[in-house]
Please model this.
Amino acid sequence: MPKIINRTEETVHIGNIEPHPANPNDGDVAAIAESIRQNGFYGRVVVRDSTGKILAGEHRWRAAQEVGLTEIPIERVKCDDETAMRILLADNRTAEKAEREPEPLADLLQELEQTDDGLTGTGYMGDDLDELLDDLERLPGHDDFSGENEEIDPDDLMEDEIECPRCGFEFEDDE
Model:
């Protein structure tokens, strides 16, 4: 069974913690700073208790500095060197492996775009939404993305002849 590691929560002066030198990621600090300006600083930065090095949330810490915060909430964890590296890498990798469902994302962005603040503080720009909507329109069966897709007959997508891009052999439709 997984364990919950020994941790404490507190608010600290932003200068009392520092980035971990082994962090391989380079996040979009400007987008995070915009989010903090718009939405406030939420959550915590995860810090290794014995070293004061950030294991998760370095770019939020950098963005907090950029917007002028002097204190931030942290979660101190007690762990050994190996566990610290695993936490740092897992935090980066699991975020990287996330996949977005384009239709619900487009719905959320369109809804927020209609508000007074638009997409400010989301990390998305109008161009991002336009590109997402264009991509959705190119998907087969997507007249819109409200969940009402028309049925497509796969035979309608086949050409009479298909040519192999390597050898040039032409395959013919048997029908």
Observations:
- The helical segments are 29-39, 58-66, 81-96, 102-113, 126-138.
- Residues 99 and 126 are 20 Å apart (CA to CA).
